[in-house]
Design a protein that fits this description.
The protein has 249 residues and is mainly beta. It folds into two domains: 89 residues, Tumour Suppressor Smad4, CATH 2.60.200.20; 96 residues, Tumour Suppressor Smad4. 6% of the residues lie in helices and 46% in strands. The longest helix has 8 residues. The chain is globular, with a radius of gyration of 27 Å.
């Protein structure tokens, strides 16, 4: 291909015809318009899989979510490791003072697996969950309130509010079913937090142990205690920054 009089042209045809302009040549490489293509039958469409790489490791997407809503900045993860932190890593959130300098890492496991680990951060890394088992020491975030679960005996548990200055209010639960919600509602445990729904979560006790289920708009967040597999689209929290992780299968 060469340049002539300020426009890009394709090489001259061997039969002596004048060369085509770049636009005409490029259109030749594009598939014909849909109206000129024979319609694929339903069975044929089902037999053809969309193209994807079969040899190289697969990508993943990490979205740094906006403060409100589910939009945000998309980061394509093509390497094997991505560190998130306040001052170090591939994703840096310098204005989040509750995030540690090196807070969390996402790592590839094999060719198609991923895991999320906390890097010893002060505030911890939380994953958004529909439900979770509770055991002594489990830390949750409901709204903007962090709670640590402890057992008093076989039939009683307690949620302790966690503040920067130390432990706060203790909320005991003795019934087989206890609701957690905003203070001033009929919830069994009331939290003075505008980000907590009137009924935000339900705590269940059975012979299998303790369990909590989400019912709130802003979700139930569980602090990870070890590396967790990220096999489906998942939200996680570092400091006050929410992220969405999506593996591409």
């Amino acid at each position: 291909m060469n340049v002539a009089k300020g426009r890009i042209v394709s090489p001259a045809a061997k039969d002596g015809r004048p060369p085509e302009s770049f636009d005409a040549w490029a259109r030749v490489l594009r598939p014909p318009a849909a109206t000129h293509m024979p319609a694929a039958t339903h069975s044929a469409a089902e037999e053809v899989a969309a193209y994807r790489p079969t040899v190289r490791a697969r990508m993943a997407l990490v979205k740094v979510l906006d403060d409100i809503g589910e939009d945000g900045e998309l980061v394509r993860m093509r390497g094997d490791r991505l560190v998130i932190g306040r001052s170090e890593g591939e994703i840096v959130i310098p204005h989040d003072i509750s995030m540690s300098p090196r807070h969390a890492v996402i790592e590839r496991v094999g060719n198609a697996g991923w895991r999320l680990s906390d890097l010893g951060s002060v505030g911890g890394t939380f994953v958004r969950a529909a439900s979770a088992r509770l055991r002594p020491g489990t830390v949750l975030q409901i709204g903007s309130t962090r709670l640590r679960f402890q057992t008093l005996d076989l039939t009683a548990g307690v949620f302790v509010e966690m503040h920067a200055s130390g432990d706060g209010t203790r909320h005991e639960c003795h019934a087989p079913t206890t609701t957690i919600g905003r203070a001033g509602t009929n919830a069994g445990i009331g939290l003075d937090d505008p980000f907590v729904s009137p009924v935000h979560a339900t705590v269940l006790r059975s012979h299998h142990g303790w369990r909590i289920e989400n019912a709130g708009m802003n979700g139930l967040w569980v602090r990870i205690e070890a590396a967790v597999a990220m096999t489906v689209p998942s939200q996680f929290l570092c400091g006050e920054q929410r992220f969405m992780f999506e593996p591409l299968h």
